[in-house]
Amino acid sequence: MKPFVVVVLLFLFACQGVSDTTWKRVRTELSDIQEKDKRYRIPMDSVARKEGWKSKRIEELWTNQRILDSANLVAVDRLLSRYGYPPAAKVGPLSQVPFDVIRHADDSVQAIYCEIIVGAGKNGDLRMSEVASFYDQVLMMERVPQEYGTQVWIEYKKNPETGERYDSVYLWPVRDMPNIDAKRLAAGLDSLSSHLRRFGIDPSKGYLIRKSGGAPH
Fold this sequence. Notes:
The protein is mainly alpha-helical. It has helices at 3-15, 20-38, 44-51, 56-83, 88-91, 96-103, 107-122, 128-141, 180-186, 192-197, and strands at 152-158, 165-171, 207-211.
């Protein structure tokens, strides 16, 4: 049996036999985690508009938020270990909360939970369009081909003659290109060509070279 299938089955088994009273307690805990996940992120935009993203106040907000993020990750890991991924049928919209916490974690942490997140997407507990993008991002960070063609790669280069910097934007390699649009459709995404055109990429070439509009992010 494939490792991915084993992981999904284990988490399905973990969800079985959980009482409604327990799911009520899980909803309460997820609601608390959600509040902490947003506590300092919500005011950041307004503070940044007034003081800038490099202001001391923004630095303080990020410091406080990272402390909560670490605590949230521990809480999410404990929930997943005990009950599996919380199904939307039991916790409603709060099924999004573990995914949000994991997306805010480091790349290495995202990779650990990737199969669980993909399983939740395929079970209908998360929006598969968001899961597909997350999955592709993890694959790209691992330097392997992506599944759904959601990720592009930007290389920042400098013209040796003029000193002018320019960006080369590429579609990150896709594992199964002949079937990519069928996969994207099943995940609730539009066609690959439409997706690439939003980046100004010619689908027939798979890349775009443009002048840089600013420093790399």
